[in-house]
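Issue: ligand-bound run for iron/sulfur cluster - logging full I/O for the record.

Environment: standard queue, default settings, no custom constraints.

Inputs:
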Amino acid sequence: MLIEEVTENVSELVEKLHFAEKVERSLSLIERAYKEFGDGLVVANSLGKDSSAVWHLAKRVSPKIRGFIVTTRFKPPETKKFMAEEVSRYPELKVFSNEQEIPDKLYEVDPDKCCDILKVQPTRDAIKDMDIKCWITGLRCTEGRTRTDYKEIEERDVGLLKLNPILIWYEREIWQYLALHQVIVNPLYLKGYRSLGCWPCTKIAQGKDERAGRWIGTSKCGGECGIHTKPLISDYQI
Ligand code: SF4
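Outputs:
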């Protein structure tokens, strides 16, 4: 079983493997997960570059692999348009959102709560609704300070595996893969963004930390929305 396999030291693999070996490793992880979980294996597609690469890899393993997108009322128009195009290209992508009323500018006063309501809760809904046993993410350990400790295969919630098949890829290798396979990507990258999110919480940022432009000026700066850190299948309530 996938979870019982030893996950090697990922930081070593980041340096040790070349691009083609990383692609092979990612495909093999998805293939093995698909054999084990079949329809219960689902890709979380955030419409960013890493998700586009993971989605393409999963489609190479099987065109039948499903996906889900969590969207919010604050996604930029470019992302909303790209989402509509992706869903029409891939009807097996299901969209989840939470339209409940929230206080005005909650993203300024309590971004953690805003993300809990608008991102984490719809992720829980997706996992339940699609009967997901193993979800595939586009997490990478070189993305920023909050992403260095993940494993390729994790069980953060009992009964729900998380597969991070491109964990050891560099940002450059993502673009290499997308260019070589001519994958259509979110047009916001043309403007200089390196990490995409909701418009009030995402700025164009330079430097080593790809996620530095997220939640600038708040306690969450360069941080996480919560889908990788909060319980996803418990009775936890916001
Ligand atoms: S990224 Fe910002 S606007 Fe989007 S859910 Fe989180 S706090 Fe709210």
